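Notebook entry, structure prediction.
Reason for the run: the old model in the group folder had no record of what sequence produced it. Starting over properly, with the input documented here first.
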Amino acid sequence: MRRCIAASGAFLLVAARPAAAFVPLPGVVVDPAGAVVYLMTPGGGIDAVSLERGDLRWSTAGAAKPLALVGRRLVAQAEPPGDGILRLVFLDTRAGKRVLGADVALPRGVRASIDEGLGTSLVATARADGGGVIVAWRSVKRPVGGLAPGPDAPPPARLEEGAARIDVRTGRVETRRPIPDAPARPRTARVRRDESECVVLERAAPAAEVTLACGRPVAQLESADGRHVLVALRAEGERRAQGDYVWSVHVLDDGARVAQLASGWSALPFFVRDSRLVHEVRPSERMVDGALVVEPRALRALDLTSGAVVWSRPLRDPAYRGPYPAR
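New structure, fully documented this time:
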């Protein structure tokens, strides 16, 4: 079954480019300076791979989900040792060796699982904070049943959240209240759709508009590092044989197009590095010549010129996909 991201609104604000590492999607951390990407693997663990060719630099089973890069330390979430504990591991980025660990206390009954359960999920994020790391978490529990809820049913969802600061030298944990806000990117431009169904880039300096694409735009998405924008158009005519959509990728500084590629998805989290476009591959099933083809979740790099796959690495899929209660 093919699924697509819904089209965006009338315009998309875009941000100034960051100079540091970034997180294009949960469980993936990109270090542009080191030309390496850290990703969570399906079997449980973390791989460090080259951005250029996808070569494996190191692998570890000592942690499960990369959260952030702080200096030469990769902050990662470990598999939960039990309820009430969010276990963090600091890895040396050169070899993937553990250098520090810390446990963040959670409320009773909250489990820091990396994978979703039936109606349950916990998401942790991390960012640098001077000589430490701010780790925030958010737990959601929703009642799930086979029948529609009655008037006396419990509340639709239970939300709990919190944050802590960890000293990167000692591992000392300090609970933080209220939860610190992450710094926002300064906005320098916006992408909007005009009356003629063209997607236009509005720049602050120099003050000018650049038409990015015209046709049948269905989605527009900023890259994870804030340097590019993807405009998805409905494929027409012979192009439909390659995919339902055409991706037009542009530099946000001047609107220059760097790639035009066919895709079966309207838009996916992505970023551009040198001559590569790296994007998420969502799990999907489709019929090809009468046979069912199952494509697992992955991180894939495409050549900007040809659209050919340069490398692909499997990604852990934390989404809950059943079973569900019977009606």
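Summary: DSSP finds no helices and 27 strands in the chain.
The old model has been moved to the deprecated folder.
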